[in-house]
Amino acid sequence: xxxxxxxxxxxxxxxxxxxxxxxxxxxxxxxxxxxxxxxxxxxxxxxxxxxxxxxxxxxxxxxxxxxxxxxxxxx
Length: 75
What we know:
Elements: E1 11-17, E2 23-29, E3 32-38, H1 40-61
Antiparallel strand pairs: 1-2, 2-3
């Protein structure tokens, strides 16, 4: 499944700090229980990528050309 593939999968997402000084993105869905921990710098990079993707999606919704998000690609 790619980034542009539609899906009927539903999941819940929670984001918050851990007691170990990490930022956790916790994804829970049918058959999925996925805690992802990031150091604060990585979490800031992810936040920047989310904002860039939201801006690109907003521009596409206004009839603009699709472009690449401005954030760095994830590993």
